[in-house]
Amino acid sequence: MATEATQTGHVSPVSLEEAGVCVDSHGGAIGMPQLCGEWMGNQIFWLLLTLVVLYFVLSRVALPRIEAILAERQGTITNDLAAAEDLKVKAEEAEQAYQKALADARAEAQAIVAEAKAEIQADLDAATAKADAQIAAKAAEGEKKIAEIRETALDNVKAVAKDTAKEIVAAMGGKADARTVTAAINARMKG
Amino acid sequence: MASESLGMEAGAEKSDGLVFHPMDQFIVKPFFGEGAVGTFTFTNSSFWMVMTVLAATALLVLGTSGRSVIPSRIQSIAELCYGFIRKMVEDVAGKDALPYFPYIMTLFVFIIFANFLGLLPGAFTPTSHIAVTAILAMAVFLTVTVMGFVKNGAGFLGLFWVSSAPLPLRPVLALIEVISYFVRPVSHSIRLAGNMMAGHAVIKVFAAFAPMILLSTGLGLLVTPLSILAITAVYALEVLVAFIQAYVFTILTCVYLKDALHPHH
Amino acid sequence: MEGDIVQMGAYIGAGLACMGMGGAAVGVGNVAGNYLAGALRNPSAAAGQTATLFIGIAFAEALGIFSFLVALLLMFAV
Question: Where is this site: Reversibly protonated during proton transport (chain C) (predicted)?
C-alpha cells in the first residue's frame, strides 16, 4: 500500500490545480475542492443569482406581508384591550348605580321607620295626656271630697265637744252658758 | 494506519482497507450528466442554492399566506424568524439601520437554510465553499465601507482614530484598527466556511471508521459503535453550529453596519 | 523520494497546526465560563449579553478554525 504513492509518483495537488484539474481519474478530490479555481466562477454566478432572487422575494413579498400581519395583530390586540377597558368602565358604572339604588332604598326604609315611630309616639303622647288629665281630675275630686269629709268631721267634733262640755259642766253642777262654751271650744280647737 | 492515510492520497483505489475521502463531498459537479463545470452550468452547488431559496420561500411566503391573526405553526416560525432578525438589527445596529433590514434578513435566511439543508445526508453545502462565503462577506464589507463614506464622508475615518486613547498611542492603534478592519471580511468568510467544512469533514472521517467491523470483527466491535456514536454526536453539534454560524454572521454584519452608521467610538 | 519528505513534513505540520485548536477550546471555554460566572452573579443582566457572548465565542472560535484550515491546507493542498 505504501508503495502506491511512489508508483504513481507524488504529484503535488497544486500543480494539478494549476493545470485546471481538481478531480482525479477516479472522481476523488485532489487537494481541497474549496481552492479549485475552476469551480469558483460557477459558484459565484449562482450565488449572486439566488441571492438576488431571495432578496426580491423577501423584500417585495415576504417581509411586507409579515409586517402587515404583525401590525394587524397589534391592532387587534389594541382594539380588544380598548373594548375590555370600555366594558370595565361600564361594569363599574353599573355597580355604582346599584350601590346608589341600595343606599336610596335604605334611606327610604329608615324614613318610613322614623315616620311610623313618630306616629306611634304621638298617639302614645295623646293617650298619656288624656290619662293624666283624667287622673288629675279624679285626684282633684277625691281631694275635694276628703276636704269636705274633713270639714264635716271637724264640725261634728265641735258639736260633740260642745255637747260633751255642756254635759260635763252640767254634771259638775254648773250652769253652762252656751255662748261661753262655744267660745272656749273654738279657742281650744285653734290652740 | 499508514495505509489509511495514504488511501486518502491515492484516491478511490479499490483497496481492502478503510477509505478516507473527507473532502470528496465538497466536489462541485454538474447536476445533470457529466462534463466540465462552466460558469453557467447547473451544478450540485447551484441545485442546493436554488433549494435554499425555495425552502426560504416556502417558509416565509407560503407559510404566511394564511395571514391569520392567530398564526399557524409554520406562520409563527416565520414570524419568529422575522422578529429575531429585526430585533437584532434594532438592538445592535440601531433604529437607523432598519432600511438595511431586508438585506440582512436575506443573508441570514440564505445562510441558515444553506447550512441546514447541507446537513441532509447526501446534500451539498454551498456555504462550505470559501468562494461563496467570500462573496457574502465581501458584499457586506463593500456595502459597509461605501455606505460609511457616503453617510459620514471623511468622518468615517474616525473609526480608526481612537480619540479616547492617549495621543502617542493613537497612530499605533490606528494602524491596528486599519489592519483589523481589512481582516474583517477574511475572518468573516473563513469562519463560516471553515465551520461548515470542518463539521462535514469530521463526520465523514468518523463515517470512514464505521465499516471497520467488515475488516476485523474484534476491533470492529469496539470501533464501529464508537464511530456511529461519534457521528451522531458531531451531527448534533453541527445542527447547533449551523444555527450559531448563521447567527454570528448576521450579528457581525449588524456590528459592522453600526460602525458605518456611527463611526465614532 | 523527495515527494515523500515533502509529504511527511506536511503531515507533521498539519498535526502541529491542530494544537491551535486546543487554544481555541481554552478561549471558548473562558468566554463561556466567565459569562456563566457573571450571569450567576447578576442574572437579570444576563439575557442582554447573550449577543456579546456569541460574538466573543465566534471570535475565539475563528482562530481555532484558522488553525484547522492550515492543517487542511497542509494535508490536501501542499
Answer: 61
Spatial contact of B189 and B133, defined as CB atoms under 8 Å apart = yes
Number of domains in chain C: 1
Minimum distance, in Å, between the CA of residue B171 and any CA atom of chain C: 25
User: What residues in B contact C68, CB-CB < 8 Å?
Assistant: 194, 198
Contacting residues of C for B8, CB less than 8 Å apart = 75
How many structural domains is chain B composed of?
1
Which residues from C are below 8 Å from B201, CB to CB? 72
Tens digits of per-residue pLDDT, B18-57?
A: 777 888 888 888 888 777 788 888 888 999 999 999 999 9
pLDDT higher than threshold 70 for residue A69: yes
**Owning domain of residue C30:** 2-77
- Reported as a single tens digit per residue, the pLDDT across B91-140 is 888 888 899 999 999 999 999 999 999 999 888 999 999 999 999 999 99
Q: Report the percent of chain B where pLDDT is more than 70.
A: 93
Tell which residue, B74, C4, B171, has the closest CA to residue A8.
C4
Question: How far apart (Å, rounded) are the C-alpha atoms in residues A140 and A146?
Answer: 10
**Chain B residue closest to A74 (CA)?**
B69
- Mean pLDDT lowest for which of A112-116, A117-121, B172-176? B172-176
**Residues C72, B255: C-beta atoms closer than 8 Å:** no
The whole-number pLDDT of residue B166 equals 83
| Residue C77 with chain B: CB contacts under 8 Å | none
Q: State the ipTM, two decimals.
A: 0.86
Residue of chain A nearest C76, judged by CA positions: A31
Closest chain A residue to C5 measured between Cα atoms? A10
Say which CATH number the domain at C52 has: 1.20.20.10
Q: Tell me how far CA of residue B174 lies from CA of A191, B159, B171, in angstroms.
A: 147, 9, 5
Chain B residues near residue C76 by CB distance under 8 angstroms = 23
Q: Which of B115, B117, B97, B130 is nearest to B251 (CA)?
A: B97
**Quick check: pTM over 0.80?**
no
What number of other Cβ atoms are within 10 A of residue A85's Cβ? 10
Measuring CA to CA, which residue among B158, B151, B141, B63 is closest to residue B109?
A: B63
- Which residue, among B80, B105, B117, would best test binding to A if mutated, counting the most A CBs under 10 Å from its CB? B105
Q: Which amino acid is at A115?
A: E
- Cβ–Cβ of A28/B110 closer than 8 Å? no
Which residues of chain C carry a pLDDT beneath 50?
A: none
Span B203-226, average pLDDT: 87
Distance from CA of C67 to the nearest CA of B (A): 10
Residue A85 pLDDT: 94
Q: Is the pLDDT of residue B90 over 70?
A: yes
- Describe chain B by its helix, strand, coil percentages, rounded to 5: 75, 0, 25
Q: Which domain range does residue B78 map to?
A: 2-261
Record the cell numbers describing residue A8, joined without a space.
Answer: 504513481
